[in-house]
Amino acid sequence: MARPLIGITSHLEPARWGDWVREASIVATPFLREVDRAGGLPVVLAPVHPRGIADLAERFDGFVFTTGAPVGAGAGGPESPSGDPDPDPRRDRFEIALVRAAMAAGRPFLAIERGVQVLNIAAGGTLLPDQEHGAPSRLADTDVTISATSALGRVLGDHASVRRAHGPGVNRVGAGLAPVAWDGSQAVEALEVAGHPFGVGVRWRPEEGGDRRLFETLVARAGS
């Protein structure tokens, strides 16, 4: 039986090969490793022109939306406190279009950290400003409460200790999404697409911990 094909989003940065420097699609190895260990076939997706989105949604069995710079103001994210330009507008456009296509096609996906920002904006929601803009992005342990009746709760239970960095949080929740996890201050820590086979976004970093259940569930749903 073929392994489910899982597309993993990337960002564009200059990379060096000897004396050559070229723009390259970059993705952190833990995302590839966790999808592989869960039984999926990981494929890095460059942020191509949105005209290719329909083909991706048709050919791939599932998706992982990865971490990175916050969604820029031009795509619906909060304004940078320093007035910096949007860091990666091509990626913003690509991922917003891709997550909309995945929702419409019923393709399973896991949206991580920046990914949950993309998901909420794609559904018409808004984000809170990053109160720690410019601070080091160190991961900190955070306890979250999870709705036991949600898809996330059926995977992780009603409580989890997770690792996450700072970043823009969820303000107004987008249409068709439901908040399903909260921290101690009742800030939203996870969103789900209502009625979707597995459309989950989390603010934390499951690829950096030892709990592989979210990746295993994604791959299992993608292969069913």
Provide keyphrases for this structure:
224 residues; single chain; 9-stranded mixed sheet; Rossmann fold; two-stranded antiparallel sheet; 26% helix; transferase; alpha/beta
Please summarize what this structure is.
InterPro entries: Class_I_gatase-like, Peptidase_C26, PuuD-like. With 224 residues, this protein is α/β, with parallel strands linked by helices. It is built from 6 helices and 11 strands.
In words, what does this structure look like?
This is Putative glutamine amidotransferase. It comes from Actinorugispora endophytica. Keywords: Glutamine amidotransferase, Transferase. InterPro entries: Class_I_gatase-like, Peptidase_C26, PuuD-like. With 224 residues, this protein is an alpha/beta fold. It has helices spanning 29-37, 53-59, 89-105, 114-122, 151-156, 213-222; strands spanning 5-9, 11-17, 20-26, 41-45, 62-65, 109-112, 140-146, 159-164, 177-182, 188-193, 199-202. It has one domain (5-13, 21-222): Class I glutamine amidotransferase (GATase) domain (Rossmann fold, 3-Layer(aba) Sandwich). It contains six helices and eleven strands. It has a nine-stranded mixed beta sheet with strand order 4-1-5-6-11-10-9-7-8, sandwiched between helices. Strand 10 (188-193) and strand 11 form a beta hairpin. The longest helix has 17 residues, at 89-105. The mean pLDDT is 91.
